[in-house]
Amino acid sequence: MSRAELIATARDNAAHVKAGTIAQADDVLMVPASKYTDPSRWQLEMDGIFRRIPLMLAVTAELPNPGDYKAMEAAGMPVIINRDRSGVVHAFVNMCSHRGAQLVAPGRGNSNRFTCPYHAWSYNQTGDLVGIFAEQDFGEIDKKCNSLTPLPVQERAGLIWVTLNPKSTLNISEFLCGYDDLLANWGFENWHFFDSRVVKGPNWKIAYDGYLDLYHLPILHKDTFGSDFPHRAIYYGWGPHQRAMGPDPSLLKLLDEPEEEWPTQSLLSGVWTIFPHISIASFDGGGRGVMLSQLFPGDTPEESFTVQNYLMEKPPATEEIAAEAKEQFKFLEYVVQEEDYATGLKQQRALKTGAKPEVMFGRNEEGGQNFHRWLDEILAASDEELPALFTRR
User: Fold this and answer.
1) How many other β-carbons are positioned within 10 Å of the β-carbon of residue 189?
2) Residue 164 CB-density burial (10 A; 0-12 exposed, 13-18 middle, 19+ buried)
3) How far apart are CA 89 and CA 75, in angstroms?
């Protein structure tokens, strides 16, 4: 079914190529500028979005083996994601049950146990408390009631989603709205994790607006990507998750071929975004690769940081290919840091003046319009109402 959706999308895109059109929103959308600067709005987003709905926190390629783990902080929550000896992925709050110390420093590793650096309490791969230092002196407690705090987690399509609220009942599969079935066509579970780095940026929505915006490409990136880069976009949505792609003339050559012969790679072009904070864009430097960007709010409304992950379809077979991939990744860091985010930081300062009460998203910027509408709808929904939002597509 997912391949059928990719083919339908390709046919729709090809029809726009033939007609010289793009799908457009009904009208221009006005968004209050204060939504990018107001501390109360930012706190609402932290609580109502980042600490409430599933976030894509890791890729399978980061922890492919039993015992592998990744520790990180997401929206103020210290998290451990690990794979147990049977291959099942778990997620926990990175917090000892004794006095709350963090068990593992941020980073990746492999371990059969997590041992607290403060008092040496230890936990196994499934989060059970299995060891108490000098237990005979401590006093009697029930170990079964003092395991690590688990977080809802799901591994699909080579990607790992975690909900930061331990008590959340929101079904992660329902939240994905079938989008994970399309992402499965990439085969990320078999890709190679090449490298990652962190880039600091402006308010997280300014950064995310850019992920969905092809309009700026031949202007802001004229000296890097080129001024002839396509600026027109067509958006396809699965719940709040969106794929942005320009009218693609290369799809026309497929129309005369049997659909079963259409190469899957040709059907995966464009930018794939996962609400509320992921962008996946493909590149060919040093072999087929993608930059998977994980965007997180910072400590204030004016800050964000992005973890740029570079994945390759295959491990680099030679030092030359590895060097090419490294240069490609370095180039992409420059584009984001010195062009996208440098512009966004200036935009942030201008918006903070209040000189313009609103910002605009044109009819050609339907992706941004969809994002802001979904954002407002999710924030307005109660926990009980939230699942129903993701049952419509």
Assistant:
1) 15
2) buried
3) 21
Q: What's the whole-model pTM score?
A: 0.95
| Nearest Cα residue to 329 out of 356, 280, 291, 367 | 291
CB 348 within 8 A of CB 205: no
* pLDDT of res. 392: 54
Given phi > 0 = left and psi -120 to 50 = alpha, else beta, which region is 129? Answer: beta
pLDDT at 111: 97
Q: Is the preceding peptide bond at 301 cis, omega within 30 degrees of 0?
A: no
Q: What is the pLDDT of residue 324?
A: 92
Contact indicator for 291, 332 with CB cutoff of 8 Å: yes
Q: Is residue 100 very low, low, confident or very high in pLDDT (cuts 50, 70, 90)?
A: very high
One DSSP character per residue, 249-313 reads GGGGGGTTS-GGGS-GGGG--SEEEETTTEEEEEE-TTSSEEEEEEEEE-SSTT-EEEEEEEEES
Domains (range + CATH), the chain: 2-53+173-389 (3.90.380.10), 56-169 (2.102.10.10)
Q: With contact defined as beta carbons under 8 Å apart, do 174 and 390 qualify?
A: yes
pLDDT recorded at residue 61: 97
Residue 239 region by backbone torsions, left for phi larger than 0, else alpha for psi between -120 and 50, else beta: left
pLDDT (tens digit per residue) in 33-76: 999 999 999 999 999 999 999 999 999 999 999 999 999 999 99
